[in-house]
């Protein structure tokens, strides 16, 4: 269980407050108006933004003061998820050892992950030789070998077309179900939430609200969400 | 016109050079020394700049942006002032020697190859640090997050981010510093000398001043031109940034390098580079204070000449650069690049030699020392001015060009109502650089000045030659104040009430 206990997160000159729990294995969408602090919330969980009050706990263990690389967290960013000078396989291998010293068995693990995301045999290519969708798959393969408990998505598929984005979301959903990972996905599109998320965390007016069942929340939106969705 | 000036003088040099008698042993020695010192200076400057830039890139501390701004200062620092400062710190009677003396050690020897290299590192370490820091800053913030997220240690950071960045950026920095050091004159004049430590520039000067052997001076100029031209071409090909970029003081949040060892190493490099930069400056202020109140009339007269030269040079520069920037922005991109190459390649002494050869049959070159110095200084400042002006000119034309056309505002009206007002801040900055560079220049004036005429840098050099170090230090402090003051006034004037 991921618990944000009475948290206050500073991002420059504005703050987001959160006091909520997310069940292990859940797939949760984080939605809300732009600038409300959706990214701020997940960046605090990843350890990129300091928590000035409260604690972040995973299964009872306090993560608050741990550096990003030591947390049980894997994260995909809006862009810049791959290193352009490394091959596809090397980019995936970073998830096992950032210094790229892998054993034979680990390299085959990398190969298997690439197979799983549908990129078998493409390990020796450079990211520039791949399409946008394929690049997203490489990043997902790395998340797969990282094998972390929590997966954070900060709109990594925003630049893809609707069909491709749906395909990637389904892949994320499948991978998370196979590994039992807890997913927190930032999105500005309610349809993304409906597609794969069981629950939604609404971030508005400096507050991250506790998760609510997706359909329930989107069908009966509270005023803050109504204003955002434009369904007054 | 600039090309005509540069190419014309080169033509004069070439014609004259044919009368020469080929290279002697001392000329080859000058070539070897020029290459050796430039190579060493480039390697040391960039080698030291890498850890310093790395420390600046990943640490945040009070005074950080001030220190980064100070890294730009040596660019407009008069060479002769810096040399006096370096002498006060590293010279025979300097601070370092006194310190060593307390432990019974020999004083350090600053004259010769290592003195020349030391001075070049003083000038170019800050430049190289800025160039390489720019490389670090251009690594997108997401990459640092991704690396932190993957728990990358120092080796992995190197392999993922720093190595690739340096492989792209370091050759450019090396080439730029190498090209700059090739045409070193004032440093070699004061700290080098002797058959073992003479650069080609210095050899041109000696052939000219001591032997009045115009043929040999011309031949050496041709050699220098080949060398610097080749180096400038390489430098412009391999270098991407120019170290003038804004936002260098922006601190990217980092998660790596948090170990005690990394922290203390970074601290060590920051303190070391700041001390290397600031101690000679502090030394010149301390040494100059007693002397500045009792300056001779000849120094004040030289200062007056320097102000005249700087003012004239700034006017010439703006007259050249503003129309050229507009032309370059209007699509003649080759123009900018050409002026960049010529500016880096043509050394003041080569152009000076050419001008001398051209003027000599018609008029007395020594009588024209002041305007010639101003002209050559303006041409030397031109590539820097273009780098400052062209991007803004492009912006102004792109943004207001069509609007002005639709208002039927063309020609002079556009220049006066739109172009010049919108360019004001950049014009002030470029003018400030030009004035400061000209004020502190000790190059072509050494060729043209007769004993009755001097600019302030030349007068300081003469005082040093007469071992009147206190008077020299006082005059150097005055020159420092004049250069920095001219830069500050012009740069400020440009930005005064200039709306973004």
TrEMBL record, chain A:
<dbReference type="InterPro" id="IPR017871">
    <property type="entry name" value="ABC_transporter-like_CS"/>
</dbReference>
<dbReference type="InterPro" id="IPR050093">
    <property type="entry name" value="ABC_SmlMolc_Importer"/>
</dbReference>
<dbReference type="InterPro" id="IPR003439">
    <property type="entry name" value="ABC_transporter-like_ATP-bd"/>
</dbReference>
<keyword id="KW-0472">Membrane</keyword>
<keyword id="KW-0547">Nucleotide-binding</keyword>
<dbReference type="GO" id="GO:0016887">
    <property type="term" value="F:ATP hydrolysis activity"/>
</dbReference>
<dbReference type="GO" id="GO:0005524">
    <property type="term" value="F:ATP binding"/>
</dbReference>
<dbReference type="InterPro" id="IPR027417">
    <property type="entry name" value="P-loop_NTPase"/>
</dbReference>
<feature type="domain" description="ABC transporter">
    <location>
        <begin position="2"/>
        <end position="230"/>
    </location>
</feature>
<keyword id="KW-0997">Cell inner membrane</keyword>
<dbReference type="Pfam" id="PF00005">
    <property type="entry name" value="ABC_tran"/>
</dbReference>
<keyword id="KW-0067">ATP-binding</keyword>
<dbReference type="InterPro" id="IPR003593">
    <property type="entry name" value="AAA+_ATPase"/>
</dbReference>
<protein>
    <submittedName>
        <fullName>Thiamine import ATP-binding protein ThiQ</fullName>
        <ecNumber>3.6.3.-</ecNumber>
    </submittedName>
</protein>
<keyword id="KW-1278">Translocase</keyword>
<keyword id="KW-1003">Cell membrane</keyword>
<keyword id="KW-0378">Hydrolase</keyword>
<keyword id="KW-0813">Transport</keyword>
TrEMBL record, chain B:
<dbReference type="GO" id="GO:0005886">
    <property type="term" value="C:plasma membrane"/>
</dbReference>
<feature type="transmembrane region" description="Helical">
    <location>
        <begin position="427"/>
        <end position="449"/>
    </location>
</feature>
<protein>
    <submittedName>
        <fullName>Sulfate transport system permease protein CysW</fullName>
    </submittedName>
</protein>
<dbReference type="GO" id="GO:0055085">
    <property type="term" value="P:transmembrane transport"/>
</dbReference>
<feature type="transmembrane region" description="Helical">
    <location>
        <begin position="307"/>
        <end position="329"/>
    </location>
</feature>
<feature type="domain" description="ABC transmembrane type-1">
    <location>
        <begin position="303"/>
        <end position="490"/>
    </location>
</feature>
<keyword id="KW-1003">Cell membrane</keyword>
<feature type="transmembrane region" description="Helical">
    <location>
        <begin position="268"/>
        <end position="295"/>
    </location>
</feature>
<feature type="transmembrane region" description="Helical">
    <location>
        <begin position="214"/>
        <end position="236"/>
    </location>
</feature>
<feature type="transmembrane region" description="Helical">
    <location>
        <begin position="341"/>
        <end position="362"/>
    </location>
</feature>
<feature type="transmembrane region" description="Helical">
    <location>
        <begin position="173"/>
        <end position="194"/>
    </location>
</feature>
<feature type="transmembrane region" description="Helical">
    <location>
        <begin position="469"/>
        <end position="490"/>
    </location>
</feature>
<keyword id="KW-0472">Membrane</keyword>
<dbReference type="InterPro" id="IPR000515">
    <property type="entry name" value="MetI-like"/>
</dbReference>
<keyword id="KW-1133">Transmembrane helix</keyword>
<dbReference type="InterPro" id="IPR035906">
    <property type="entry name" value="MetI-like_sf"/>
</dbReference>
<feature type="transmembrane region" description="Helical">
    <location>
        <begin position="368"/>
        <end position="390"/>
    </location>
</feature>
<keyword id="KW-0813">Transport</keyword>
<keyword id="KW-0812">Transmembrane</keyword>
<feature type="domain" description="ABC transmembrane type-1">
    <location>
        <begin position="31"/>
        <end position="235"/>
    </location>
</feature>
<feature type="transmembrane region" description="Helical">
    <location>
        <begin position="65"/>
        <end position="90"/>
    </location>
</feature>
<feature type="transmembrane region" description="Helical">
    <location>
        <begin position="29"/>
        <end position="53"/>
    </location>
</feature>
């Amino acid at each position: 269980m991921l618990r944000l206990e009475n948290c206050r997160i500073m991002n420059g000159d504005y703050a987001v407050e959160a006091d909520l729990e997310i069940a292990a294995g859940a797939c949760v969408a984080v939605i809300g108006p732009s600038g409300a602090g959706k990214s701020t919330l997940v960046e605090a969980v990843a350890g990129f933004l300091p928590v000035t009050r409260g604690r972040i706990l995973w299964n009872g263990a306090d993560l608050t003061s741990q550096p990003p690389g030591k947390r049980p967290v894997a994260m995909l960013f809006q862009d810049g998820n791959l290193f352009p000078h490394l091959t596809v396989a090397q980019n995936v291998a970073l998830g096992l050892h950032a210094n790229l010293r892998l054993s034979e068995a680990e390299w085959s693990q990398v190969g298997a992950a690439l197979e799983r995301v549908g990129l078998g045999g493409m390990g020796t290519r450079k990211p520039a030789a791949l399409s946008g969708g394929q690049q997203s798959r490489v990043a997902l393969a790395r998340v797969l070998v990282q094998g972390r408990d929590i997966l954070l998505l900060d709109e990594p598929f925003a630049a893809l077309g609707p069909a491709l984005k749906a395909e990637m979301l389904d892949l994320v959903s499948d991978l998370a179900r196979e590994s039992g990972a807890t997913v927190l996905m930032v999105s500005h599109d309610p349809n993304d939430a409906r597609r794969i998320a069981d629950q939604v965390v609404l971030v508005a007016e400096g507050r991250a609200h506790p998760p609510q069942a997706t359909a329930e929340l989107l069908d009966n939106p509270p005023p803050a969400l109504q204003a955002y969705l434009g369904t007054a | 016109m600039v090309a005509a000036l540069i190419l014309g003088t080169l033509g004069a040099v070439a014609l004259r050079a044919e009368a020469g008698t080929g290279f002697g042993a001392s000329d080859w020695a000058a070539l070897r020394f020029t290459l050796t010192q430039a190579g060493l200076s480039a390697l040391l400057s960039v080698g030291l700049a890498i850890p310093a830039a790395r420390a600046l890139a990943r640490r945040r501390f009070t005074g950080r942006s001030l220190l980064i701004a100070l890294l730009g200062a040596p660019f407009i620092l008069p060479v002769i002032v810096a040399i006096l400062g370096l002498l006060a710190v590293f010279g025979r009677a300097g601070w370092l020697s006194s310190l060593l003396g307390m432990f019974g050690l020999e004083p350090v020897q600053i004259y010769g190859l290592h003195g020349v290299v030391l001075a070049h590192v003083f000038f170019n370490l800050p430049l190289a640090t800025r160039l390489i820091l720019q490389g670090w800053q251009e690594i997108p913030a997401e990459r640092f997050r991704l690396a932190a997220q993957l728990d990358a240690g120092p080796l992995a950071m190197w392999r993922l981010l720093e190595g690739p960045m340096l492989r792209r950026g370091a050759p450019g920095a090396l080439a730029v510093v190498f090209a700059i050091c090739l045409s070193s004159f004032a440093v070699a004049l004061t700290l080098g000398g002797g058959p073992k430590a003479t650069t080609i520039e210095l050899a041109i000067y000696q052939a000219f001043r001591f032997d009045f052997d115009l043929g040999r001076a011309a031949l050496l100029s041709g050699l220098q031109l080949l060398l610097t031209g080749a180096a400038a071409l390489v430098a412009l090909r391999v270098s991407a940034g120019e170290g003038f970029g804004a936002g260098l003081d922006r601190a990217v949040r980092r998660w790596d390098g948090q170990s005690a060892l990394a922290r203390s190493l970074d601290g060590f490099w920051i303190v070391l580079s700041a001390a290397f930069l600031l101690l000679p400056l502090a030394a010149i202020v301390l040494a100059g204070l007693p002397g500045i109140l009792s300056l001779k009339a000849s120094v004040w007269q030289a200062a007056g000449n320097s102000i005249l030269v700087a003012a004239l040079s700034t006017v010439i520069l703006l007259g050249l650069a503003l129309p050229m920037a507009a032309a370059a922005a209007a699509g003649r991109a080759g123009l900018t690049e050409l002026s960049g190459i010529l500016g880096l390649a043509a050394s003041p002494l080569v152009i000076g030699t050419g001008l001398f050869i051209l003027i000599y049959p018609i008029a007395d070159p020594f009588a024209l020392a002041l305007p010639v110095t101003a002209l050559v200084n303006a041409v030397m400042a031109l590539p820097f001015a273009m780098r400052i002006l062209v991007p803004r000119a492009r912006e102004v034309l792109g943004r207001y060009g069509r609007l002005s056309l639709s208002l039927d505002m063309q020609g002079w009206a556009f220049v006066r109502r739109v172009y010049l007002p919108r360019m004001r801040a950049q014009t002030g900055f470029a003018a400030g650089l030009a004035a400061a560079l000209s004020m502190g220049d000790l190059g072509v004036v050494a060729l043209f000045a007769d004993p009755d005429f001097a600019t302030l840098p030349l007068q300081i050099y003469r005082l040093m030659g007469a071992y009147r170090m206190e008077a020299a230090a006082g005059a150097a402090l005055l020159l420092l104040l004049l250069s920095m003051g001219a830069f500050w006034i012009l740069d400020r004037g440009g930005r005064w009430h200039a709306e973004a």
